[in-house]
Amino acid sequence: MNIFKKDKRKEIKNETPLERSNTSTSGQSLVKLRVFRINAVQNPNDVPHFDEFQVPVKRWTTVLDALLDAKSYQDSSIGIRYSCRMASCGSCGMKINGIPRLACYTKISDLDTNTITCEPLPNFPYIRDLVTDFSQFFDHHRSVMPFVKNKKADIPNVNELTEYEQTPQDLDKFLQFSYCIKCGLCYSACPTVATDLKFPGPQALSQAYRYLADSRDSDKSKRLKVIDTSHGIWRCHFAGSCSHVCPKGVDPALGIQLLRSHLLGLSNSEKKLAKLHDRSTNSYREGEGE
Amino acid sequence: MLLWRGSIDMTSATSAKRIDDNKNKSDRANREGLRGWLNPIIYGWERVSYWFQRLTGIFLLVYFIGHVYETSSLVSGPDAWAAMLEMTQTIGGHIFLILVIGASTFHTINGIRLIFTHSGQGLGTPGRPDYPYDPTSVNNKQRSGLWIAFILAAVAMLYGANVLFSGGE
């Protein structure tokens, strides 16, 4: 995730620097895994420190694999949160070599180093070791009302139920943002979140745009009130870090800027709506004149 | 997070309170704070731009206060004004003014770029992301404004240095 980022689609070389330089007696490569340790909840006086483990790796070993290896064979007390192992659940987010990433999605061979440092996600309170508390993050997510709200949806007669029609173009406006897995990487990379506890963060703001852009949603004003505050969307300064670390291509920075342009009345949809409004007002007036 | 709540349910009321208290104590322990602003390199050019925009903004604010103070010396007469101007006629003063030229040029041009990006212009449109998920908002179209800001700041600083150190000859 360097600014001089390598193409992830590059062909995997037969022999990485890692494999050349560090080999165990059994012929397997070894890396040094530095794991952040703290038990802040049970023991408030616990001093944060790093434990080091030598872990055998192969070309396709992920950081999560290495952590689970260390947990299985060297220290079972390492605290990790994980579930799907395929970048779908967003549980295993952590700071790997200084950058927030998903452990299951980060291959050790891609890191080009023999020392892997794993720390908990910044801007999330510690629970234990690499496990952090997402309460505040989810509170922000809830605050933007991340659900479709439609007054017409409350239909008492079941027989009158119909599907919501939506064109592929309508879908494309928000589909990208609905791929969010709530892993918290964007929240931990955001420089504004680092200094402002009340700032909703890139995840919540991009989700606000996701529902705002959804043609099925009809209750936009309440959502906009939540984000149009002094600690809301105006605190984003487009550092782009959220989009750089997002493992699913959600591009929260894009969502936030589009949401802001909507609030400023500058988005294309705003202009179209204004034109439509003008047309309907004019035709109404013409109708009145007749 | 669910496990965390579950663990509270399983413990006695006293230990649950202790866990809550300890959690609150460590609540801010992992916040990056201003340290989060210090490492702009690892997150891409937009973060570098963010860092420079903040840095030049603070620098220009400090300069503005100093400038008001400097100009206010006029009310004490021409001698006081001349004495104040003497301060800028040193090598250190020249370097400071060159930095002011560079900071103000970068801050202005990059600020214009940010006005466009904050208005959703030049960022591309939402689509269906494909691996390797290169984000559309951090594209070269809007980033070109950043290069222009850097280049114009460098040119302005060179011109300023030429004027200040060799009298523009």
What does the model show?
The complex is a heterodimer of chains A (290) and B (169). Chain A folds into two domains: 17-132, Ubiquitin-like (UB roll) (Roll); 135-275, Alpha-helical ferredoxin (Fumarate Reductase Iron-sulfur Protein, Chain B, domain 2). The radius of gyration of chain A is 24 Å and the shape is elongated. Chain A is 34% helix and 12% strand. Chain A has a five-stranded mixed beta sheet. In chain A, strands 6-7 form a two-stranded antiparallel ribbon. Mean pLDDT of chain A is 85; it is low at 1-21. The longest helix of chain A is centred in the last third of the chain and has 22 residues, at 268-289. Chain A has helices at 17-21, 63-73, 108-111, 135-143, 168-174, 185-189, 201-212, 220-227, 241-245, 252-263, 268-289, and strands at 29-37, 49-57, 93-96, 99-102, 115-119, 126-128, 131-132. The relative contact order of chain A is 0.11. Chain B has 169 residues and is mainly alpha-helical. Chain B is built from seven helices and no strands. Chain B has helices spanning 2-10, 13-25, 35-38, 45-72, 78-86, 91-118, 140-166. Chain B is elongated, with a radius of gyration of 25 Å. Mean pLDDT of chain B is 83; it is low at 1-12. The chains are: A alpha+beta (290), B mainly alpha (169). Chains A and B meet through helix 5, helix 9 and helix 10 of A and helix 2, helix 3, helix 4 and helix 6 of B.
Secondary-structure blueprint of this entry?
The complex is a heterodimer of chains A (290) and B (169).
Chain A: H1 17-21, E1 29-37, E2 49-57, H2 63-73, E3 93-96, E4 99-102, H3 108-111, E5 115-119, E6 126-128, E7 131-132, H4 135-143, H5 168-174, H6 185-189, H7 201-212, H8 220-227, H9 241-245, H10 252-263, H11 268-289
Helix pairs in contact in A: 4-7, 7-8, 7-10
Chain B: H1 2-10, H2 13-25, H3 35-38, H4 45-72, H5 78-86, H6 91-118, H7 140-166
Helix pairs in contact in B: 4-6, 6-7
Q: How many helices of chain A does DSSP assign?
A: 11
**Largest Cβ-defined interface:** A-B, 67 and 52 residues
Helix content of chain A: 25-40%
Rg of chain A, Å, rounded: 24 Å
Given the C-alpha coordinates, what overall shape of chain A results?
A: elongated
Q: What general form of chain B does the structure show?
A: elongated
Strand order of the largest sheet of chain A: 2-1-5-3-4
Q: Tell me the fraction of residues in β-strands of chain B, as a range.
A: under 5%
- Structural category of chain A is alpha+beta
CATH class of the largest domain in chain A: Mainly Alpha
* Sheet of most strands of chain B: none
SS-derived structural category of chain B? mainly alpha
H-E order of chain A: HEEHEEHEEEHHHHHHHH
Number of strands of chain B: 0
CATH superfamily of the largest domain in chain A, by name, is Alpha-helical ferredoxin
